[in-house]
Amino acid sequence: MHHVDIMYDKRSVPQEPRPHFQHWVWFNMEPPLIITNLHWLDGLFNMTLTFRKDADIFRPYGQLIAFKEPQNITIPTKSKLVAWVVSKFYPGVWRTAYYEELKKYIPIDVYGKGHIALSWDDFNKTISQYKFYLAFENSVFKDYITEKLWSNAFGTWTLPVVLGTSRENYERFVPGDAFIHVNDFPSPKDLAMYLLELDKDDEKYRKYFNWRSRYYVKNGGGWQLSYCQVCMALKNGPHYQVIPSIAKWFLGNGTSS
Question: In its keyword annotation, does this UniProt entry include Glycoprotein (predicted)?
Fold first, then answer.
């Protein structure tokens, strides 16, 4: 059951007595900022399916798969500097505040509602022209690393500048030299100076792409994959369990170091 589809009305959850052989799976790909009413779920679900690696069924937004042999790579030609595609541009919130300070020291092209128009058909062709992409998450939460990194940055062969969970958390899923983390710099000004330095040093810039000779990016896929993951988990014969509190598990263990 997809949480966003049941969180506004408790009656969205089936009300009839459940057959003893039926497993309920809680499916959620959003951070606590987006979802609500987790307390409704106490004692109802048997399995979790989320982006959290400690879920019963792990469903990341993307992952790296190792090549059998090292590959030769070619970085697309870059003619532009920094891009950010954002659908929810809220003045004053933390990622927007960071952007507002960063843009004082380096030019940034912003795409999305209220900014430069960009269709999905033109997304890859447009963003691949940039050296850097602001992969700014809307929340700091354990393992919450979304398409902003996997599709928007890695998928277009731009170098992601990430803002979200900790560097240590990112490095559970991608090499440490595959991205730049805002936390590595004392201020947005220092980050901007480093990006401008990389812009002038092709050899140093290319080092951030060395991992691509060893791994390729596999995006999370559609909902069909989630259903397949559930079927596989059930086929493997899960032991019977009831999760007393989704809220306690998801919120209590979700803080990011």
Answer: yes
Tell me which residue range forms the domain holding 37. Answer: 3-59+220-252
Distances (CA, A) of 56 to 21, 30, 50, 97, 118: 18, 16, 8, 36, 37
Q: Are residues 213 and 224 in the same domain?
A: no
Threshold 0.90, pTM exceeds: yes
Considering the domain architecture, whether residues 42 and 75 belong to the same structural domain is answered as no
Active-site residue, 30 included: yes
Same domain, 151 and 205: yes
54-109: pLDDT as tens digits: 999 999 999 999 999 999 999 999 999 999 999 877 776 789 999 999 999 999 99
Q: Number of H helices and number of E strands within the chain? A: 9, 10
- Out of 30, 101, 171, 197, which one is annotated catalytic? 30
Q: Which tokens is 231 given?
A: 């079927």
Q: Name the stretches of the chain with pLDDT < 50.
A: 256-257
Are 118 and 212 found together in one domain?
Answer: yes
